[in-house]
Amino acid sequence: MMFPVTQVVLDTHTYKSWTDRGKYMLHADGKSFWYDKSFEVLVFADAKLGVNAEHSWGDAPVVGHVMEFGLTE
Fold it and tell me: Does residue 55 carry a catalytic annotation?
């Protein structure tokens, strides 16, 4: 059985607005980390986290359902 490759990023940045945090999660600063995994969990210094997922038709629904389950349960 194959599992997607995952990366957990412990980031030292903090952001006051969701917009700035979202922009960083989309493209970072170009040198912080690579977007070469099926999905990455980014944990920020202020204990907020986000997920950056590969968005092909096969991977995106799986990550979406896992995140939805985690947020609702």
Answer: yes
Consecutive H or E run containing 50? strand 49-53
Contact 40, 7 (CB under 8 A): yes
pTM of the model as a whole: 0.69
Closest CA to 54 of 17, 18, 7: 7
**pLDDT for 5 beyond 70:** no
Q: Which of 13, 27, 55, 65 is catalytic?
A: 55
Tokens encoding 45: 């210094």
Query: 65 burial class (0-12, 13-18, 19+ CB within 10 angstroms)?
Result: exposed
